[in-house]
Amino acid sequence: MRQWTAAKTENPDALLFFRMGDFYELFYDDAVTASRELQLTLTARDRERLVPMCGVPYHSVEGYLTRLLRRGFRIAICDQMEDPKLTKKIVRREVTRVLSPGTALDASLAAEQNNFLAAYFEAGVSHPNDKNKSVARVGHPVCAVALLDVSTGEFRTAEFAGANARAQAADAILMAGANEVLLGVSAETPAGLERVAAKTRVEDWVFTHDFAVPLVERQLHVKSLEGFGLVGHEAAAIAAGVVLHYVRTTQKNEALHIDSLRFQEHSTALELDQVSVRNLELIEPLFQGQNSHVTLFHTLDECLTPMGKRLLRATILRPLIEAREIDARYEAVGEAAGDLMRREELRRAFAGILDLERLLARLSLDSAGPRDVRGLAASLAKLPGLKAAIGAMDAPLWKAIAARLDTLEDVTARVATTLVDEPPLTLADGGAIAVGVDAELDELRTISTSGRQSIAAIEERERQRTGIGSLKVRYNSVFGYYIEITKSNLSHVPVDYERKQTLVNAERFTTPELKAYELKILTAHDRSIEIEKRIFAELRRFVLEAAGRIRRSSAAVAEADLLANFAHLAAARRYVRPQLSEETVLEAVGARHPVIEHWMEETREGRFIPNDIFLNAGQGPESPGPSLLLITGPNMGGKSTYLRMTAMLVLMAQMGSFVPATSLRLGLADRIYTRIGASDNVARGRSTFMVEMTETATILNTATQRSLILLDEMGRGTATFDGLSLAWATVEYLHAETGARTLFATHYHELTMLAEKLPRVRNLRVGVKEAASGIVFLHTIEPGAASKSYGIEVAKLAGLPPAVIERARHVLKQHEKQERQSVQVETEPEPMQLTIFTPLSQRIVDRIAEVDVNSLTPLQALNLLEELKNELKN
User: Fold this and answer.
1) Confidence at 484, pLDDT banded by 50, 70, 90
2) Which of 5, 25, 173, 448 is the most exposed place for a label (fewest CB within 10 A)?
3) Same domain (yes/no): 705, 682
4) Strands across the sheet containing 75-80
5) At 211, which CATH number?
């Protein structure tokens, strides 16, 4: 228990799994927690039951660890560091690794997902031990984020500056799906990071230049980080050092597979914030528990390798922005899509390639067994065939991938000659090393397997030498091997026999030969395990020397899988190649929503009705517009589908994929903004309307002419005239100031008048057919404004009681009549300066209606006018 206390003191915030024989035991509060979370029986070691405990078998501990990590717990593994057979004292125990949600390596990790560990560092905040203040900037702090997937070795960092730096940094962590974030002990938790499963505090001295940056340089084996794009980005380098320190400390390992670092420039990809990713359902469903089939990732995922799946996910979140790179992908995808034979040969070549990155990571962190290494080699053995299939393509990008793909035959051959074809799960079982690798190992195995024959041979030889036909060679666990001779034959016992035990009717002896054989056979298994561990350690070092080559080949496999996936989708789903344009245009003919169309085809629910899109944000007479489309029509008619479809077409096009349309001409977008749906943040004291206004403010303050903006039902969370006024002003601002390509869906039909006042605004409406039984949604987008919203008709379709429907129709007529009487639209003389909906007090209207003008004297009329004027002022 002294050992347990020492280990627990080192890791007070972790559940301590303490190895005792064949079990990992937990004690005190750890035991109570584990028994509750894992449904284990709580026992006690002392008679008074003051020391609660519970445990799990060591050979099945991984499943229990996985369940605890998913719940956000940290776990310290305390192992036996000595062989109990070789010590007479208490076995020495030490903490060999600390597991946390961000460093999990278990096989249950989803193949398509990264398991990121994040570090957040705010350079504008002075830490007590940080002598280097050069990273701090005047005004707003510099916020840095580092993201490391220990299970794959993917390592990147980024910096954010300006008024929104904290929000952008938190957004980057959330978009990456980090399961754990590292923060300084004295640092505040940025708003938004409360959604991360685990927040771990690290000492402030780790967040210093003098400690963190040299650590990164040593890990990458360089004297300067200049080659990684980190010159002038010290905050990002410090965040990277914090992540490395945490991993090396918790894993008790140098993590050799982490051999590269990428500084993520914001201008190198189409930017998406967390709001847009969530609203568009790119990676996860909008509502928890909803089927993942509604996401764009699931729709596009026909990748055949885990690395390809992760690259697809990353590409959805960070589409390309360089036309040259996008066109290179189009050419490669187009070639494969147009050649069925070569495309299918290529896709078949991916069969049998396992997760190279995660197998390498397990090997690097010394958690891989013989079966993992054999699986790695079996996957590498598929690379020559894959390289040949890629090399059969002609597009430059295919040729470049083939050139980068190292087939690693030397590694494959070394593993194949060292390990048996089907090795055991762990080295403790023995039998992992192939015959012929080590002569001593082969001899020891012969002894272990031919023990009976050897004993029989000794027995026969001793019978002939002594002439005692009843002589027997036997074994028991107390005395080991012995020769048993009956008392009637004792006179024939040779002089070199040594008496070992006397029985009633016999004597037991041993010989120098038998002693030597006993020692050899009893130690053969243990010695075999030692030799196998040594050989496996040498093999591990050899493979890790090629870690950089394996990672580069894995990246090449992922890119080839992604492009082959795009080609397969294009051929199977009638996707077409987009045409990139220098103009800020978005012109789609016969566009279809990729997710809904695929779902309808899978479920045979009908056919998706295509629609056209045209937006042009260019200025001048050569670019007639429109830059903003006002879309009106009933709920369920397809307004939100039209908005999301537009965003997904742009997103897919800039990923390098073909798109679901008859044709698409696109001027590249720098960012996609969405304001769709209603949500609140009660924990941060923000109402639905406040969240909506915050998101809208971000759009208006940061969008450029090259952006794509989607606004759906803006202003519906407040009073009608407040919301209408804000929506009106927002349209004016987007038209006059931003000029970005914008789709604005609304139920405020009054906004449609803006199309007559603003030259680059056009009205579109959702097609609806009215019938005697109700309305029919045509799901088509037509020019012009909708005459009404059909909200009551939609409510009728939803099943509201007839009495409510009839009463609603009556109330609607009353309100429409009153609105016509009380709403006046005034237009200021200046162009595009519109004052809308100045309501007159109903009381003033009533007074005017009651006055008999013919009976008023001039003085009474003047007095009445003065009273009304004063009332208006008040």
Assistant:
1) very high
2) 5
3) yes
4) 43-44, 52-57, 23-27, 15-20, 75-80, 93-99
5) 3.30.420.110
Question: In the structure encoding, which two tokens stand for residue 506, read together?
Answer: 């016999």
**CA-to-CA distance for 452 and 767, rounded, in angstroms?**
88
- The answer to whether residue 563 sits within a structural domain is yes
Tokens of 627: 């830059």
Give Cβ neighbours of residue 299 (< 8 Å, ≥ 6 apart): 293, 594, 595, 598, 599
Please give the tally of structural domains in the chain. Answer: 6
Which residue did the predictor score with more confidence, 506 or 864?
506
Place of tokens 């078949």: 348
Separation CA 775–CA 827 (nearest Å): 35
On whether both 616 and 702 belong to a single domain, the answer is: yes
DSSP state of 735: I
Beta bridge partners, 181, equal 118, 199
16 shares its domain with 63: yes
The span from the CA of 616 to the CA of 754, in Å, is 18
CATH number at residue 445: 1.10.1420.10
Instruction: Give every CB contact of residue 268 below 8 A, 6+ residues apart in sequence.
Output: 321, 322
Convert 277-297 to b/e letters by CB count within 10 Å (16 or more is b).
bbbbbbbbeeeeeeeeebbbb
Q: What number of H helices and E strands is found in the chain?
A: 29, 29
Predicted pLDDT of residue 411: 94
Does one domain contain both 554 and 478? Answer: no
Residue 470 domain-assigned? Answer: yes
> What value does the mean pLDDT take over residues 806-824?
65
CA distances to 112, 208, 376, 741, 839 from 844, in Å: 66, 69, 84, 44, 11
Which residue do the tokens 């609607």 mark?
812
What is the C-alpha separation between 729 and 70, in angstroms, rounded?
47
Give the residue numbers spanning the domain of 863: 842-873
Pairing of β 180-184 and β 671-675: unpaired
In a domain, 296, yes or no: no
Nearest to 734 by CA among 753, 766, 718, 710: 710
Among 264, 291, 324, the domain-final residue is 264
Structure confidence at residue 837 (pLDDT): 41
Write phi, then psi, for 371 (nearest 5 degrees).
Answer: -65, -35
Residue linked to tokens 């109402």 = 687
Q: Same domain, yes or no, for 510 and 552?
A: no
Cβ within 8 Å of residue 859, ≥6 positions away: none
- Could you count the other beta carbons within 10 Å of the beta carbon of residue 263? 18
**How far is the first Cα of the chain from the last one, in angstroms, to the nearest whole number?**
80
DSSP string, 506-557: EEEEE-HHHHHHHHHHHHHHHHHHHHHHHHHHHHHHHHHHTHHHHHHHHHHH
Give the count of beta carbons closer than 10 Å to the beta carbon of residue 607: 10
Q: For residue 458, report the phi and psi dihedrals to the nearest 5 degrees.
A: -65, -45
Q: pLDDT (tens digit, 9 = 90+) per residue, 537-577?
A: 999 999 999 998 999 999 999 999 999 999 999 999 999 99
**Same domain (yes/no): 719, 600:** yes
Query: 590 and 566, same structural domain?
Result: no
**Structure tokens belonging to residue 442:** 């082969």
Same domain, 196 and 79: no
Structure tokens at 497: 């026999």
Side-chain-side CA neighbours of 191 within 13 Å: the count stands at 11
Contact between 387 and 402 (Cβ < 8 Å): yes
Beta strands 741-745; 628-632: pairing state: parallel
- Confidence (pLDDT) at 90: 86
